[in-house]
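From the shared-data thread, chain only:
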Amino acid sequence: SIRFCVERLNDSLRRISGVSDGRFSNDAEKLGGRFAAELQFCTIEEVFDAGLHDYLDQVQLKLNNIGEALFNAYIFKAFDTGGEEHFVQQEEQQQQ
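Structure, as tokens:
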């Protein structure tokens, strides 16, 4: 189920960062925790009232936002911190 997968996602995010439940160290953990809480308290009636197609579209958007936040927290930052120095060094070498 979607709820099971999002709960596993949150478990994995917490293992990566070492942050305990109820806390977050980045937007991916914050968005994942919020989404897990929404799923835990959502009823099937609410899903059908919203419309199954629209509900699944919202699920996909939330997962995309979590994925983007995960990328920004772990992948983009890793390249961002060392990338500028490398670029400046290359630029200086080219000017010499």
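Helices lie at 2-17, 27-41, 44-50, 52-95.
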